[in-house]
């Protein structure tokens, strides 16, 4: 094995067989692992979301009780709404699929583009925040290395996710569980230690509310509470990740997905709501350069040596959880990218899987974009966080509005439960859309406009890609119709003599392969006595959705190959076919061709390459350069591959 392949296998791991019936079960996630891997984004928001809401109360501390209750209710309302998404779309896709199929493809594009930007920002914000927390314990002279450390963290996460979703979760799980257990313990202890103040919370809150209303009136008080509640909207980010990755969950997927959502809802509401209650009971001072979490935990733990050590561990776990949250962007983001590639909004290469059955190109793209954002912002969380929460609430709102439309349309055919589901979806939509509008208005000038520009740019690029693929697919369908030849039955197979001149033709698209076959016959009349047809079935995101999809893909490949064998037989030409299946078409076809050349000693390989009028770098991104890669590999092995040009008019 070449050195680079050995090194790659050592770092990433051995290839996985996608057709192994037990493999889907091996790499799929049970609810607990899904909670750890996908729930970190939401749980990490408790490090900054409650603080944003509490500080926005402008001295009306007891209004925090309303925020704590509203936060817990909102988490469960959004979670219940996304449970419906899991039921309706058990193959994954989440907010993108909901908007696409219930509201139309262009609304789905907006949702998908918003999710892409959101997950890139999840990686960037979480990485920058974790390093901010870590470097706050180091001398100031080390700050010069913070940006380099953030870049190194992203590169490390890329490598971890190349090994697979389950592998990266297992490595990061101790950090997640340590954060959750320690914070629950601190919340319970902090509330119990302040139990005398607990009995006064409701009376004091009522008195402060009456006093504020008497002074300012109902509307200003409600506006203040709702404004603070909306600024804490970052607390709810990450709840959509489960519905986007249902296809990665253990069967039965719907039940596993609902349990995962339940774990996420309970953990997030307990942690976020509990931290707000700690703010209310302990009323920590806002110290510049220090988070409210650090202040309140310092008050709870005291100034003893043991308290300082426990506080240090707590804050390090918060930094660690933000690191795990950055990893959740790598878990969820490439799946959205792959689903959009299946629908033609993104280049096809983003739907392909690696030998570890990971969406490799998507992982790399998200890592590179997050790294570029970090460098552009110089790792400043204050800039990145402004861009962060807007896009996820765009997806929330579109998904929940799609559910409203779905239940409204099915009211005549559905059971009596449709009324309650419609009501729940509408309440959730009203909450998320209100938070979106307030966040967009209040943060527009301080950076929200940039989020809109970036998201609209992604939408514009997707529209250009989709239009190109539409024109291309239309021409390919016309080509298939024009070159399709009738098959006359019954057919008599012709015996093959491996010593005779043989033409081996690579088959992907029927029309292109027929173009290759007819041109070989025209260019070399009566020279080749045998024709061998080779094809590779590519296991991508779409075909890897389940065993049924894999078998369907295998049947389609074999059916196409059999068509060409039958076509040769009806003209008295000896022919046979071979198919291979895997995640890398070039590698699989290269190995197959080398094996074929051992059987047929007098063999020449043929394929066709599509020639575009404007052939440039963008065309090479949108279309795989499989013929050129095959030619390079086979020429290196001393085999002949002839590429026939085929121009699409």
Uncertain regions spanning at least 5 consecutive residues: none
Q: What is the structural class?
A: alpha/beta
Q: Indicate the mean pLDDT.
A: 83
Kindly report the oligomeric state of this protein: single chain
Strand content: 5-15%
**What do we call the CATH topology of the largest domain?**
Amino acid/polyamine transporter I
What separation lies between the terminal Cα atoms? 44 Å
Count up the helices: 24
Strand tally? 5
Principal-axis shape equals elongated
Instruction: Give the CATH superfamily of the largest domain.
Output: Amino acid/polyamine transporter I
Number of domains: 2
Cα Rg = 29 Å
Main beta-sheet annotation: 5 strands, parallel
Tell me the strand order in the biggest sheet: 3-2-1-4-5
Q: What is the helix content? A: 55-70%
* CATH second-level architecture of the largest domain: Up-down Bundle
List the secondary-structure elements in sequence, H or E. Answer: HHHHHHHHHHHHHHHHHHHEHEHEHEHHE
